[in-house]
Write a structure and sequence with these properties.
46% of the residues are buried. α3 packs parallel to α4, α4 packs parallel to α5 and α6 crosses α7. The chain is built from 8 helices and 7 strands. The mean pLDDT is 90. The protein has a 7-stranded parallel beta sheet with strand order 3-2-1-4-5-6-7, with helices on both faces. Helices cover 48% and strands 14% of the residues. With 258 residues, the protein is an alpha/beta fold.
Length: 258
């Protein structure tokens, strides 16, 4: 199936590692021009060795001005953006008993505002041009609470609503917005989450991993590349009717009908 992504200009936040990096690889393989963003120049340099030709920008996306400047720079280098994939930011896993107002705020900054500060300038530019697609990689924690992920889960829930609302608001201007909620995927972020689970239950990290894998219908963790396949379809014109949806992509890890 030709996804029609050749020559498209794609911005991927959090593109230096994990699912974001897998998405960058996949878009480049389809012939798209890609820019990736990370707070860490070191991570960007490592990613560029893997990706080859791509635009790399270091920016702190929890700063609205820095995010807007990053978007401006990327469009100057690549041209008008056709696709935005948000994969940056992950709230620190914290046991419920250890949460503080500062921890709640940090969760929103890390996951919610790091997306919103990029979406805001991009969606307006896309609307002015009459075209564009935004795919937000969010997470099932916004639907099913976890005692070690309440702050991040609250941010995820807010992003789901923002994604659906922006899709409705901008549909008439040619812009699509889709939320994708990966399950437990083999990434560094999940490894950090397993540390928190191990601490909460008083078990080793190895045991936490064993229990997690045992609970997965696949009998293994999905790979970032498998999530990237779904992202590319959603971002392409083939995914036209997905706009406004928040879709769980977890291979049946948490079967629901909502």
């Amino acid at each position: 199936m030709d996804l029609g992504l050749k020559g498209k200009n794609v911005l991927i936040t959090g593109g230096s590692k994990g699912i974001g990096l897998a998405c960058a690889k996949a878009f480049i393989a389809e012939g798209a021009r890609v820019a990736i963003v990370s707070r860490s120049q070191e991570n960007l340099d490592a990613a560029k060795k893997v990706l080859g030709e791509c635009c790399c920008v270091a920016a702190d996306l929890t700063d609205a001005k820095a995010a807007a400047a990053m978007v401006e720079r990327v469009e100057q280098e690549l041209g008008a953006l056709d696709i935005l994939v948000n994969s940056a930011g992950a709230a620190k896993r914290t046991n419920a008993e250890e949460l503080t107002p500062a921890a709640w705020r940090a969760g929103m900054d890390a996951k919610y505002f790091s997306y919103i500060y990029v979406i805001d300038p991009v969606v307006k530019r896309m609307a002015a041009r009459g075209r564009g697609a935004i795919v937000n990689l969010i997470g099932g924690g916004g639907k099913i609470p976890s005692a070690t992920h309440l702050a991040g889960g609250a941010a995820n829930a807010a992003l789901m609503l923002a994604s659906a609302g922006l899709a409705a608001a901008y549909a008439g201007k040619g812009v699509r917005v889709i939320g994708l909620n990966p399950g437990t995927t083999e990434t560094g972020r999940v490894a950090e989450g397993l540390k928190a689970e191990a601490k909460r239950h008083g078990i080793s990290e190895e045991e936490a991993l064993r229990r997690t894998v045992k609970s997965l219908p696949l009998g293994r963790m999905p790979q970032p590349e498998e999530v990237a396949d779904v992202v590319l379809f959603a971002a392409s014109e083939r995914g036209l009717l997905l706009s406004g949806a928040n879709i769980t992509v977890d291979a049946g890890q948490r079967p629901t009908i909502v």
